[in-house]
Amino acid sequence: MKRFIRSYLRRNAGELAAKLSARTVIYGKGGGYLVADGEVPARILRDAIEKHLRNYLVPTAVRISLDEACRFPSFKGKASASNIAWLVVVSDSWGETAYGIAQEPDPRIDPAVREVFARARAQQMACETLLKMACTNEPLAGTA
Q: Cα separation of 34 and 27, whole Å?
C-alpha cells in the first residue's frame, strides 16, 4: 500500500469509519445482507472499522461481551458457551468491508484456545460475506 494512502487512512480514520459503518454488512442466516442497526452495534462497528483503517486494512479483531454481540443482526449466542465474543472486520481490494462475530466456546476450554478459535471463526464469517458479495449482486436485506 502506498505511503500516501496509509497516511490518508490514518488521518481520516474517524470520518471514513462513520461512513463505512453505515454500509458494512454481515450475511444473514436466512440469506441476504444485514446492516448493523441500533446505537450499541453502530458504535462498536464504527470503532472497530476505525481501528481497522488505522491498521492499514489488516483484518481487525475486537473483543465484545455476549450482551453486545446479541444486539447485532443474525447473532444468536449460546448460554452454555463463554460470555465473550469477537467481532472481526475485513476489507477487500475493491473497498468492500464486512464483519463477522463469533462467541468463544465452552469456558472449560483453555482461554487461549477459545480466543483463537472465536477470532478465526469470526474472520472466516467476514471473509465468506465478502466472497458472497463478490459472486452475487444481491441487495441488502435490511436492518435488524
A: 6
Q: Pick the closest to residue 136 from 44, 6, 32 (CA basis).
A: 32
Beta strands in 51-117 (DSSP E): 60-65, 84-91, 97-103
* 73-84: average pLDDT: 88
CA dihedral 116→29→139→20, nearest 10 degrees, is -30
3-state secondary structure of 7: helix
Write down the mean pLDDT value for the chain: 86
Calculate the CA 70 to chain-centre distance.
13
Residue-range domain boundaries for the chain: 3-143
